[in-house]
Amino acid sequence: MEELGRSIPKTIGGWQAAGEDRAYDRKTLYDYMDGGAEVYLAFDLRQVWTRKYAGPGKGEIALDVFDMGSPEEAYGILSCDRQDPPAGIGQDSTYGYGLLRIRQGRYFVSVLAADEGESSGQAVLEIGRAVVKALGPPGPAPDMVGFLPQEALRPDRTSYFHANVSLNNRHFLASENILGLDRTTDCVFAEYDTDSGKPAFLILVRYPGAERAAAARRSFLSAYAPESDPEGLAPAENNTWVLAVLRDRHLIIVLESPSPDRARQLAASVAIPAK
Amino acid sequence: MTHPLTRRDFLKGTTAVLLGASLGAGQDVPAAKKTRVVLVRHRDVLDDNSAIDPDILQGMLDEAVTRLVDESDPVKAFGKLVKPGETVGIKTNVWSYLPTPHELEAAIKRRLIDAGIAEDRIGLDDHTVATNPLFVQATSLINARPLRTHYLAGMSGCIKNYIMFAPSQEALHPDSCADLGSVFKLPIVKDKTRLNILCALTPQFHGRGPHHFSRRFVWSYKGLIVGRDPVAVDTIGLRLTMAKRREVLGPDQELPPVPKHIQLADTRHGIGTSDLNAIELVKLGWDEDILV
What is the pLDDT along chain B (292 residues), one digit of tens a residue? Predict the structure, then answer.
């Protein structure tokens, strides 16, 4: 990461590197991030390298380069907080209100101008473009993203993660960890268009074994849909339906489906490869 | 929460029932036994660039504290909280994106001095409070920090502000920081907090990115939420945060995930009340878009 720091220009578009570059690992991340550290630790974060840039006036830009350990993990951290339009930088990126987020290979990059303005916004994008050049080739998305049914999928709304903190920040499900998510589980959250205009949601979780998947289904139905039938189907609010089905060590949940048949169809269309 | 709060509760509109009764519905607790929280707001405390008018802020603090302790004079009001000869620690918050404003720190300090506390016996600290001699020796604490959301704890308020007193901050992170209330029972803190000030001049109702910050989720509310009970103060702060989230993000994002530590500080750790029926919310000053 230190070498990475040397390859990133210290002067970009009138903004100058200020103070010392710093690096943090999993143990020291809390020294740097108050509020978000746990979200990164829920992924396979290895290290983060940081630099501040000072600009005209009191402006400051924070550059953070996260080594997420693998391209899949970098995909995950970007995908969980996708609210802004694409920025066209690196393998995938978003930009809005002074916050640029990029993934490139196993790296995730955040460039933030706390007081966003036209000048700092341009600088944020220039810093992002400069950093990407130092990050090496692109990498693949998680395999589970490829399991999702493609029809009516909202592609920019798919998220990949492991832990409950990521699920609840992406889409609040419950105040307790009713799916038993942790760093040993892989989870995809997806949104699908419906005729009502409101999306249906699909959660696909891969557990280390079938027993944990079955226990998670019981826990989910007990907490979220206690009125469900043996199939795992239950009517919910606003004329929607909930469904939870098992497939080996995978749990498939459909939320807010407009009909039982659409819920069944979505669940059945998840293309989990045979062992 | 015996029943986990779920997304379906939001769709049903039963969130308020599960989190506690709605504001203003408090009929079953005698007024004399309620925990008082004062919300004071002033339209002109911030200018168009969010710069603070220190005189107006001092007036807001004075108004809140005098009402809180039923005293007409601010110096006498602070005299009910601390006594001459004491050592007092002001637990502030230095988070770079939204710190406790220096103007608020100065207003608190001024009134402590007016109430007879020697200036060199007043500590002001955040990250090193657990080892700072002025805090180790302190007989009284003032808890002052901004209101904001937090990725893990849902909300950062007066309860979470004391995490720096804990021997291990990381040990308090599991289960959405459920046991933050336990910090108030540590010897360095227990029974010492005289005043909690949740600064809602520019609260943050949502977060983005690694630092959980974006100016777009900060608004000029121009208020202070003040009380002797940190749980009651945070309960009002949470209500305000939820109201703003509902207005801007929609009802299904009303709750910042997941602020369970506030209710558990009451029901598990017994350090205050999270029951809205047991809170007397006194509203002073500007009431436009008050939300709670």
Answer: 457 888 888 777 665 555 654 444 445 677 778 999 999 999 999 999 899 999 999 999 999 999 999 999 999 999 999 999 999 999 999 998 999 999 999 999 999 999 999 999 999 999 999 999 999 999 999 999 999 999 889 999 999 999 999 999 889 988 899 999 999 999 999 999 999 999 999 999 999 888 888 888 999 999 999 999 999 999 999 999 999 999 999 887 888 988 999 999 999 999 999 999 999 999 999 999 999 9
Closest Cβ–Cβ partner in A110, A172, A238 for B257: A172
Give me the residue from A38, A48, A101 closest to B209, CB to CB.
A101
Counting one residue from chain A and one from chain B, the pairs whose CB atoms sit within 8 A come to 104
Cross-chain CB nearest to A112 (options B10, B209, B258): B209
Contact criterion met (CB < 8 Å) for B152 and A255 = no
Cβ contact A237–B8 (<8 Å): yes
Tell me the shortest Cα–Cα distance from B86 to chain A, in angstroms: 32
Look up the ipTM and state it.
0.84
What are the beta bridge partners of residue A190? Answer: A202
A76 neighbors A161 (Cβ within 8 angstroms): yes
Say whether A38 and B213 touch across the interface (CB within 8 A): no
CATH level 2 (architecture), domain A2-132:
3-Layer(aba) Sandwich (3.40)
Residue of A nearest to B12 (CA): A237
Determine the distance in angstroms separating the CA of B8 from the nearest CA of chain A, rounded to an integer. 7
Q: Which strand ranges, in their side-by-side order, compose the sheet holding A200-206? A: A159-161, A186-192, A200-206, A250-257, A241-247, A233-235
Domain ranges of chain A: 2-132, 143-268
Measured CA to CA, the distance from residue B192 to residue B165 in angstroms comes to 13
CB crowding A253-263: b at 16 or more within 10 Å, else e: bbbbbbebebb
Place of tokens 């945070």: B234
The pLDDT of residue B5: 85
Q: What are the sequence ranges of the domains in chain B?
A: 40-285
**Contact call for B258 and A175, based on CB within 8 A:** yes
DSSP one-letter string for B218-266: B----EEEEES-HHHHHHHHHHHHHHHHHHHH-GGG-SPS--HHHHHHH
Contact B257 A169 (CB under 8 A): yes
CA distance B150 to chain A (A): 5
Q: E strands, B113-236, where?
A: 122-125, 140-150, 154-156, 193-204, 223-227
